[in-house]
Amino acid sequence: MLILTVHEDRGYLRQLLDLGVAGYLLKRSAAEELIRAIEAIAAGGIYLDPAIAGMAVGMTASRPSDGASGAANLSQRELEVIKMTASGHSSKSMAAELGIAAKSVETYKARAMEKLCFRTRVELVRYAVSQGWLAG
């Protein structure tokens, strides 16, 4: 589900992310952002409007570990896959870019999520924002 809204309120964003919304886009954003959001979500990813993505950083405090201990234990490939996943890439596109099978991508993703103690992509995106992976 993609939310198209005028609300830039942190509480509103938090409620929707907790509900598992896959996309959050401000109505004032350019039309190209809507296309990017739809493509990211259709590929199985998550999309946060760049203007409000920074708000998600402070929301990571609700998780005790937020992946801090597991991040150091990720292999280089797991880290690549998890960063690409957080950015909204599909397994198929990651496989093509990394030159590996889509099934391998899924394995790396599952291992990384387990090591980071994440159950959902929302948790992963929050962590990715806090790490600066989605900046710029």
Question: Short description, anyone?
Answer:
The chain starts with a strand and ends in a 5-residue tail after the last helix. Strand 2, helix 2 and strand 3 (47-48) form a beta-alpha-beta unit. A three-stranded parallel sheet has the order 1-2-3.
The count of DSSP E runs of length 2 or more, i.e. the number of strands, is: 3
Count of folded domains: 1
Radius of gyration: 15 Å
**pLDDT average, as an integer?**
80
Shape label: globular
CATH homologous superfamily name? Answer: Winged helix-like DNA-binding domain superfamily/Winged helix DNA-binding domain
SSE order, one letter for each helix or strand: EHEHEHHHHHH
Compute the separation of the termini in Å: 24 Å
CATH topology: Arc Repressor Mutant, subunit A
**Multimeric status of the protein:** single chain
Portion in strands: 5-15%
CATH class call: Mainly Alpha
Number of continuous helical runs: 8
Widest β-sheet, arrangement of strands: 1-2-3
Largest sheet: 3 strands, parallel
Structural class: mainly alpha
- The parts where pLDDT drops under 50 for at least 5 residues are 60-68
Which percent bin holds the helix content? Answer: 40-55%
CATH architecture assignment: Orthogonal Bundle
